Amino acid sequence: AAxxxxxxxxxxxxxxxxxxxxxxxxxxxxxxxxxQQGPGQDPQFLISFYEKMQSDKGSIPDRxxxxxxxxYHSELNMSSLELxxxxxxxxxxxxxxxxSGELFFGEGSRLxxx
Amino acid sequence: GQSLEQPSEVTAVEGAxxxxxxxxxxxxxxxxxxxxxxxxxxxxxxxxxxxDGLEETGRFSSFLSxxxxxxxxxxxxxxxxxxxxxxxxxxxxxxxxxxLTFGKGTKLSVIP
Lengths: 114, 112
Description:
The complex is a heterodimer of chains A (114) and B (112). Helices cover 0% and strands 50% of the residues of chain A. Chain A has strands spanning 5-7, 10-13, 19-24, 31-37, 44-50, 53-57, 64-68, 74-78, 87-94, 104-105, 109-113. Chain B has no helices and eleven strands. In chain B, a hairpin with an 8-residue loop joins strand 9 (84-91) and strand 10 (100-102).
């Protein structure tokens, strides 16, 4: 079965650079979520989109932005990167805004900021 | 405010049963989910309780008591591969209701 696909899986950036993460949700899923997980931490909700519109916003820094495109894929854009942005970034998708409590997570993009 | 509490670490013997508790505080609540995450891996959905009672899925069961703001995940016949972090997570009603908020996670170590 198709899963959530994230790219790139790993990336290394310098401070103050920019990075873009991509997410391709499971086909026919209408909701995409972005989470940030630091080492030993729980996943922190950043932002979500339902039917290509932003549906909820969490602890996403102003330096970050995201959007969902007409083909339902989503991109997380991160600018002016800081050391503290080093983390695993997960994208998840669901159908019906996760009413079943089940989100399907991608394998994550590991960002290292030097 | 909204908060989730679960133990940080649990150790259990292979073949045994372990219960991971989760308590939450919120003024509105849709349901309680449980996720498993191996080191470096993605969170994987285990179960969801919207109503009070026990949900069973193979070796895993999950329980919810809305009146007590409490739930637990029960793992039976523990296997070494069950060593992982387990997160309870909730969808709160009202503003921000589309997000799933995770607890801090319980690191389960299964020993021979």
